[in-house]
Design goal:
Layout lengths: L2 H8 L3 E5 L10 H14 L3 E5 L1 H10 L4 E4 L13 H10 L3 E5 L11 H11 L3 E5 L3 H10 L3 E3 L17 H10 L4 E4 L5 H9 L4 E4 L1 H4 L1 H13 L1
Parallel strand pairs: 1-2, 1-8, 2-3, 3-4, 4-5, 5-6, 6-7, 7-8
Helix pairs in contact: 2-3
Length: 226
């Protein structure tokens, strides 16, 4: 399948993020591969995954496209922060590599444009730029990204963290950019996912509300306790 065909198949569809935090019971690549299988059976059109071994096992478990990333640290530029990280993610089996798409300085000294250009030159993978603001999105498109995601909205100083998805940013980006905008971040209900599509999202990425039982359980436990 060509990249344009793959993108076409993701339009108006759900992407499920299969990730677990360090130290949790499900923080095991085998568990995430099973989670990915379950998500695909439920209708996921693609999987977003973190970690090279997770990506490898998920590639064996499902045939849908995979958006891969590598988290290094937990602050600053930590989503696939270097070019080598991105190349490793693609080699592990991802058709799309998600990278920090903000305008912040990158650990390897490359610009966002240089990073994306090298990924395109050395692989057949597409690049999803995870951004935190409107200006980030504009810069990511100019740098050559194939997809922009609202993943970092509320996690950088430029925008406040919203209760639920940042629909305002999503609408702004979808109305301005000439490439697909994926809604990602704090989408906790089917209603919010639908609102994201109505705001202009090309695809919707949901993680916690589907694949993070610890958090889901805490929501119900808090409701029951009052």
């Amino acid at each position: 399948m060509t990249n344009p065909e793959m993108l076409k198949n993701l339009r108006g569809r759900l992407v499920v993020s299969c990730q677990a935090y360090p130290g949790e019971p499900l923080r095991d690549p085998r568990a995430m591969a099973l989670m990915a299988q379950a998500a695909v059976e439920g209708g996921a059109a693609a999987i977003r995954a973190q970690g090279l071994e997770d990506i490898r096992l998920i590639r064996r478990a499902v045939t849908v496209p995979q958006i891969g990333l590598l988290k290094v640290g937990s602050s600053g530029v930590f989503i696939t922060p270097t070019l080598q990280d991105a190349l490793d993610v693609v080699e592990a089996g991802s058709e799309v590599v998600a990278i920090d798409g903000t305008r912040r300085e990158r650990p390897d000294g490359l610009t966002l444009e240089q990073t994306i250009a090298e990924i395109h030159a050395r692989t057949n993978a597409m690049v999803m730029a995870d951004v935190g603001s409107f200006d980030d999105g504009i810069a990511a498109q100019e740098a050559g990204a194939d997809i922009v995601g609202t993943t970092l909205a509320g996690y950088t100083p430029e925008r406040q963290k919203t209760d639920g998805p940042d629909l305002e940013l999503l609408e702004q980006l979808a109305g301005r950019l000439d490439l697909p905008v994926f809604a990602e971040g704090r989408i906790h209900t089917p209603e919010q996912a639908r609102l994201a599509i109505e705001a202009g999202a090309y695809s919707v990425v949901v993680g916690t509300a589907i694949t993070h039982p610890t958090t889901i359980t805490s929501w119900f436990a808090a409701a029951v306790a009052g």
